TrEMBL record:
CDD domains: TM4SF2_6_like_LEL (cd03161). It holds the Pfam family Tetraspanin. It comes from the Eukaryota. It is a multi-pass membrane protein. It is found in: Membrane. Its main location: membrane. The keyword Zinc does not apply. The chain crosses the membrane at residues 126-152. Keywords: Glycoprotein, Membrane, Signal, Transmembrane, Transmembrane helix. The keyword Glycoprotein applies. One of its GO terms (cellular component) is plasma membrane. This is Tetraspanin-7.
Length: 160
């Protein structure tokens, strides 16, 4: 049991170190994947399009760097900027969303990449604290399992 806990502890420790060391690559991959999701965005509501809509609605953002990122997509030529970028769903018409100068007043202008990464970084202290607490419990479990094993081994020879 102590060996299993030690193995899990080491795996979590390695994952944390790798995540910390490669955090810039993670950001770069996220940005490129978000750009791909915008490029392939469509009306059929596949899971990538739903994810983009959810991010835009939840964080009140639009596009990767800003709302003008949508102008380089196929979706924009068809329907303009998506409804999920609108500040108010009642005040966004399709004609407004097709005109970037009108859309600027009706959609969120901030990009999602910065908001997502800043939200993740602001929550890192909470994640690190919880991880540290779990690691402490695992270490206590390892120590107690080793003590129990030692106790069982010592008492085995005293039986008559």
């Amino acid at each position: 049991y102590a060996m299993l806990l030690s193995l899990i502890f080491l795996i979590v420790l390695v994952a944390a170190v790798v995540g910390f060391v490669f955090r810039h690559e993670i950001k770069t991959n996220f940005e490129s994947n978000l750009n791909l999701a915008l490029r392939d965005y469509n009306v059929t509501a596949d899971r990538h399009s739903e994810a983009v809509d959810t991010i835009q609605r939840t964080l009140h953002c639009c596009g990767v760097q800003n709302y003008s990122d949508w102008e380089r997509t196929y979706y924009f030529t068809q329907r303009g900027i998506p409804q999920s970028c609108c500040k108010s769903q009642d005040d966004c018409s399709e004609e407004d969303l097709k005109d970037p100068s009108k859309a600027k007043l009706k959609v969120f202008v901030d990009g999602c990449f910065f908001l997502v990464t800043s939200t993740m970084e602001s929550k890192m202290s909470v994640v690190a604290g919880i991880s540290f607490g779990i690691a402490c419990f695992q270490l206590v479990g390892i120590i107690l399992a080793c003590c129990l094993s030692q106790y069982i081994t010592n008492n085995q020879y005293e039986m008559v």
